[in-house]
Amino acid sequence: MQEQYYEELGMTEKELLEKYPFTTLKNIWSLELVEGNWYGLIPTGWRKAFGKELLEEMTAEYDTFSTEYRHYWVVEEIKEKYGELRIYTGPTTNNMLEIINKYTELSRHRCIECGEPCKQRNVGWIFTMCDKCFDELQNRTKRKK
Ligand SMILES: [Zn+2]
């Protein structure tokens, strides 16, 4: 399998895990490290728009954690919900929550596909997409029918 490359960081997955070890995926029950990273689960556009800043800010906070706290700290789930980025962790610090909330807020204004500034549109459900990406999505959907 070809190694994942994160263009917005200029890093391969291996380099990402070396520079930001806290992005390593964990089994949420056993807290054992498992293969892969959670950063890559963030939709492409949002990674392009603020992936690096998000990692830097989270790292600064994570660095203040004790070894024991690091062991228990875990990212449980990453997803898009109601057009915004959701990062769910286990118990965490107020500072970490503030950082995560800041980027959830930011994600409402950036295209999930390409990262350009955009407005949300509500067409039954919420799309956070620029006009260009939204048109492309609609064309793709039309072609399938
Ligand atoms: Zn776009």
Structural overview:
The protein has 145 residues and is an alpha+beta fold. It contains 5 helices and 8 strands. It has one domain. Strands 1-2 form a two-stranded antiparallel ribbon. A two-stranded antiparallel sheet has the order 3-4. α2 packs antiparallel against α4. Zinc ion binds next to α5.
Radius of gyration: 16 Å
Computed structural class: alpha+beta
Q: What value does the average pLDDT take?
A: 95
First-residue to last-residue Cα separation: 33 Å
Q: Count of helical segments?
A: 5
What percentage of the residues does DSSP assign to strands (E)? 15-25%
Bound molecules: zinc ion
Number of strands: 8
Instruction: Give the helix level as a range of percent.
Output: 40-55%
The SSE string, one letter per element, is EEHEEHHEEHEEH
| Biggest β-sheet strands, sense, barrel | 2 strands, antiparallel
What are the salient characteristics of this protein?
145 residues, alpha+beta, two-stranded antiparallel sheet, 5 helices, binds zinc ion
